[in-house]
From TrEMBL:
Span of domain Nucleoporin Nup120/160 beta-propeller: 11-120
The keyword Nucleus is assigned to this record: yes
Native species: Trifolium medium
Compartment list: Nucleus
Pfam hit, one: NUP160_helical_2
GO molecular-function terms, A-Z: structural constituent of nuclear pore
GO cellular component: nuclear pore
Coiled-coil residue spans: none
Descriptive protein name: Suppressor of auxin resistance 1 protein
InterPro entries from the UniProt entry: Beta-prop_Nup120_160, Nucleoporin_Nup160, NUP160_hel_plant
Sorted UniProt keywords: Nucleus, Transport
Residue span(s) of domain NUP160 helical: 137-318
Length: 318
């Protein structure tokens, strides 16, 4: 029971994110659950009040339907996504040639496209762009270190793709709340899963994370094979990385150089008018969140990678 509020807080936080939260979509979704709040009434609710309203709905569904809390959240988000798409139908593009800005005009909102920041291009860009950026920004001393960085990014991307977004969301929530399991234990747990190829099948995770026990058992063998393949691929990649670098010191220096680049930079902006401030503040909040999200998830990926590396250090001559 202690883990259930923690699970709900992950979903609630995701629902409140910039670009995800939409008042009309939320109003329509609540109406489907017979929660008939007016749109104006919904807008007057504080963030905490809105969370309490949604949480009471989910808890009612869990009690009446006798299903897992994750199943209820999945159903809620499926309905919310449908309503979000319905209320944000695409009408056209807006192009500002003077600033090379592109906007996507929707039914009840506008989405703006921006150029990627350097950290986003390094973490998510193609290999040739990563190498070019690393050289321009003076991150490393020679081409070998750039090649090591590219291989490292491939390794941590393998972890990220295998685990999906769930692991980083759980870890992030553990840093902001007082969960039943600490952030350190979460890292140890995930590293153990990566090392052994088996997901934890204890009753807590069965009831709160995977829901139906039968589905969990059916997936366990497939997940095990996938994780074992990841372990073998990672072992071969680390061997190749060590051979290229000659020493682990050089590899760790490259990681340290990138991690320094992941430290957020504080920016202070001033706007002339109230209208400009409202519009630009909204844009800045959204874009700052996107950049911070990339930086956090990259830091998480490297934390997981380094923890895994320490765990198998004897196998890779570390």
């Amino acid at each position: 029971d202690d883990i259930l509020p923690f699970v709900s807080s992950i979903f609630l936080r995701r629902l409140m994110l910039p670009g995800v939260h939409h008042n009309a979509a939320l109003h329509a979704t609540l109406a489907e659950y017979n929660r008939h709040l007016g749109e104006s009434e919904l807008q007057t609710l504080t963030a905490d009040g809105l969370k309490r309203e949604i949480l009471s709905l989910i808890e009612h569904e869990v009690g009446s339907e006798k299903v897992s809390i994750v199943h209820c959240w999945k159903c809620f988000f499926a309905r919310y996504f449908h309503n979000w798409c319905k209320n944000n139908a695409i009408y056209g593009l807006l192009v500002d040639s003077s600033t090379v800005a592109v906007g996507l005009i929707r039914k009840k909102s506008v989405s703006l496209f921006r150029s990627l920041e350097d950290i986003e291009r390094i973490v998510e860009g193609p290999s040739d762009e990563v190498s070019e950026l690393a050289s321009v920004m003076d991150l490393f001393d020679d081409d070998i270190e750039c090649e090591i960085l590219i291989e490292l990014l491939r390794c941590v991307t393998s972890f990220s793709q295998q685990l999906g977004k769930t692991a980083s969301s759980i870890f992030y929530e553990s840093l902001l709340t007082a969960p039943a399991i600490s952030s350190e234990d979460i890292v140890k747990c995930i590293v153990k899963i990566l090392e052994t190829g088996y997901c934890i099948s204890g009753p807590v995770l069965q009831s709160s994370t995977f829901g139906d026990h039968t589905i969990f058992l059916q997936k366990e063998l497939t997940d095990h094979r996938s994780l074992r393949k990841l372990s073998v691929d990672m072992f071969l990649s680390l061997q190749g990385l060590y051979k290229k670098a000659s020493t682990w010191d050089k590899i760790l220096n490259v990681i340290e150089g990138l991690l320094k680049f992941l430290v957020p930079q504080k920016r202070m902006l001033k706007f002339d008018t109230e209208m400009s401030s409202n519009i630009n503040s909204s844009i800045m909040v959204h874009s700052s969140y996107q950049i911070a999200k990339v930086m956090f998830e990259s830091s998480w990926d490297f934390l997981l990678f380094l923890s895994y590396l320490v765990d198998i250090s004897g196998q890779v001559s570390l």
